């Protein structure tokens, strides 16, 4: 067969990597095959030469598409999967993994009975929950222990629905959850991860709202955050929330409270006040300070879970 000369090659342009359409490739392959056999072949796709041209076109188009996909993967706006994870590592962040629903369960029974890590309970919806902490039933006949769902994701566990002991332990009589479980989450989506990565580039700045937001979103297990401020000398209501004068408002879902407070303090402007229902003491251990370190009380908001129903 003659060399391929009529198939249009991919092109590098100022707007990116461009590949020819499958129809253009097929036309070029068909012309090459026809020239190789003297120019008298029937180009119909139901002929042997037509089938051969179709197969060659599929191979070439697959190679072109692979290169096109790869060039898109090095752009953070389009990267997915492993390539997106690799780009995020440049900014020292990682995709938030899927997490299970966690519930605080009240276990009742004979005082002194041990309930070990790995004990199982069953919820009304059929999901099993695993005990994640060793415990001993107290003198009052109860002990509260954390249980997590064996299936990751936002699986509801309403109060009172974790009500069966799945694997019996002598002296452990009953289990219940007085409060709703804390919903888990699915693995962070491509779009959410990219939005967090884009916000994280503000980590190198100081004093601005984007820098505070970027620092908070970089805290492990933080699912979402919102940052705003009241720069006036009067109390203002922003988004239905009353905010003190000259203060910062940060709402955070997920993450360790100490880590969140440290992130806020590390990026907020000096002299700025705080708002919120959670207050943590942060210690300044910068070089030059010795114990007792300067201490600052940092406040932020941990919002109540909001149930959202979709009718389809």
Please outline the major beta sheet: 6 strands, antiparallel
* Total DSSP E strands: 17
Percent of residues in helical segments? 25-40%
Which secondary-structure class do the elements indicate?
alpha+beta
Q: Quote the distance from N terminus to C terminus.
A: 58 Å
Oligomer: single chain
- C-alpha geometry: flat
Total DSSP helices: 6
Q: If you compute it from the alpha carbons, what radius of gyration comes out, rounded to the nearest whole angstrom?
A: 30 Å
Question: How much strand content do the residues show?
Answer: 25-35%
Which blocks of ≥5 consecutive residues have pLDDT under 50? Answer: none
Strand order of the largest sheet: 9-5-6-8-3-10
User: From N to C, what is the helix and strand string?
Assistant: EEHHHEEEEEEEEHHEEEEHEEE
Overall average residue pLDDT: 90
What does this structure look like?
With 312 residues, the protein is α+β, with helices and mostly antiparallel strands. The protein has 6 helices and 17 strands. The protein has helices spanning 22-36, 48-73, 81-90, 190-200, 209-217, 257-267; strands at residues 11-13, 16-18, 100-109, 114-115, 120-123, 128-131, 135-136, 142-152, 162-165, 172-176, 222-230, 236-238, 241-243, 247-254, 273-274, 278-283, 295-300. The chain has a 6-stranded antiparallel sheet, with no helix packed on it. Helix 6 (257-267) links the parallel strand 14 and strand 15. It is flat. The mean pLDDT is 90.
Overview in brief:
With 312 residues, this protein is α+β, with helices and mostly antiparallel strands.
